[in-house]
Automatic annotation (TrEMBL), chains A, B:
SUPFAM superfamilies: P-loop containing nucleoside triphosphate hydrolases. One of its GO terms (biological process) is polyphosphate metabolic process. Keywords: Kinase, Transferase. GO terms for molecular function: polyphosphate kinase activity. Transmembrane segments: none annotated. Residues 47-264 form the Polyphosphate kinase-2-related domain. InterPro entries: P-loop_NTPase, Polyphosphate_phosphotransfera, PPK2-rel_1, PPK2-related. This is Polyphosphate kinase-2-related domain-containing protein. The keyword Transferase applies. It holds the Pfam family PPK2.
Length: 287, 287
């Protein structure tokens, strides 16, 4: 295999998958592999290679965080039920040192959380300096199911897009690179995955009857997703559509997006904050 | 390679490495591989295999946690500087789904932490149901450097062993399996690792001049560790000595201890909390 900077990619993942390139979610092909010209076998081999690149960059980020650099990365994962958010956390997050991760899943808000504004629980979970944060669901839940089911009045949820933009701008200003990914499965693939969960006793725990109810609101969700992209995609906190019918591709794509974000930080190993020669002399003298 | 229940181990790691078997830390050989009769090559191959076993057990624990089982596992890591605690988190923690981990490092206490009793920050970090918690340093810091340097009066630190035992008993009663590991390097190996950190610019960030100062208290630390083993090792929250000169062995040993703890939970896949046949029918009817 010839080695070039982004093997397999005709154009960078961050461009090919950006919602401004992919077109509307309602017409998006969950089976496609935008920007990538390899098959599953190649993709899996590549993920192992690129995983090492990601791991090295993550260590560099972590080292800089320890040395006082305030930068961090936040990966926001959204997606239909069964789209594979958990698989991304496991198989992409699993490529790097778990100490360097700050993973937070957001379920139905607790009573205490509901007593605060919707960003309260989110702010508490933003990644510390030097970490890669992963949100498995996020503040976007507050304009997805909440919008679809009008869990709060429209007058309230409609104001949240702007609050989200302000929040993310603050994050970026504070040194966090924000990458947002919406995983997209087709209805057929979702049905196949739900079927599988009911066929295997080791998958029952992943099955939630409520997923079928939510599927009844498929088109409303597409509309709610499109609203997010239209209102909260920007160069500082871009949204990407990740076709997720092919799990191998979704993992590779998210890995590439993280690599891209980390490369842009142009990190170097932190300089010693001690006198290297003096310390070498001290160590050499140890018994 | 023939397959038996614990390949490579003449006796279970949990027994061979238990402080009651290994003898005093002052006479412990950091180069040894108690209970294990393989070399590095075999050990590394075995770790990859056993890592898959660990990952499967971790998923089972997680699934049960999601289904309402309150059990969890807590791995407490202590060790001299350079002993490789971080490497254990990376290479053993890295074998499982990072979502299933709750990793917490304990550094010098903050001002806020010092305003509370020493267990306050610890209690906040205990693993939730279904998780494997890893403490990189722990409440034992409060009877290790604190004791060696009398950072609080002896009358205060000497009472902590009993408080620790009570705390750990509570944890166990609440469903947490507690495994405690002290990683041991020899003085020669520590010197070699410190030297290496000063030879490579990508290792500078791991070097702390204070480590050399602490090395001056080596024998005091051995005494403080021995006091921990004598006062806080018990069948519910056992201490293990992990010889850490051979990194591959330390990782394999800790992996085995985790597998052993998880196997003892005798976990099965959670039963469905829904009517499987009815749900199969619903899914089959989806368009």
């Amino acid at each position: 295999m010839s080695r070039h900077r982004k093997p397999g990619w005709g154009e960078p993942a961050a461009e090919a998958l950006r919602v401004t390139s992919t077109g509307p979610i309602a017409e998006f092909d969950a089976e496609s592999t935008p920007g990538f010209d390899g098959d599953k076998e190649f993709g899996e081999t590549l993920l192992a290679e690129r995983g090492q690149v990601l791991a090295d960059l993550q260590e560099l980020l972590y080292a800089n965080g320890r040395a006082g650099d305030n930068r961090s990365v936040l990966l926001v994962l959204q997606g239909m039920d069964t789209a594979g958010k958990g698989g991304i956390v496991r198989h992409v997050g699993g490529l790097v040192d778990p100490q360097g991760l700050a993973i937070k899943g957001f379920g139905k808000p607790t009573e205490e959380e509901l007593e605060h504004d919707f960003l309260w629980r989110i702010r508490k979970a933003v990644p510390p300096a030097g970490r890669i944060g992963i949100f498995d669901r996020s503040h976007y839940e507050d304009v997805l199911p909440v919008r679809v089911h009008n869990l709060v009045p429209e007058s309230e949820w409609s104001g949240r897009y702007e609050l989200i933009n302000e929040f993310e701008s603050e994050l970026v200003a504070a040194g966090t690179t924000v990458i947002k990914c919406a995983l997209v499965v087709s209805k057929d693939e979702q049905k196949a995955r739900l079927t599988e969960r009911l066929e295997r006793t080791d998958k029952y725990w992943k099955y939630n009857p409520g997923d079928i109810d939510e599927r009844g609101f498929w088109d409303d969700y597409l509309e709610a997703y499109q609203a997010i992209f239209d209102k909260t995609d920007n160069d500082d906190a871009p949204w990407h559509l990740i076709p997720a019918n092919k799990k191998w591709f979704a993992r590779l794509a998210v890995c590439e997006l993280l690599i891209d974000a980390l490369e842009k930080l142009e990190l170097n190993w932190p300089k010693a904050d001690f006198d290297v020669e003096a310390e070498r002399a001290r160590v050499a003298e140890l018994d």
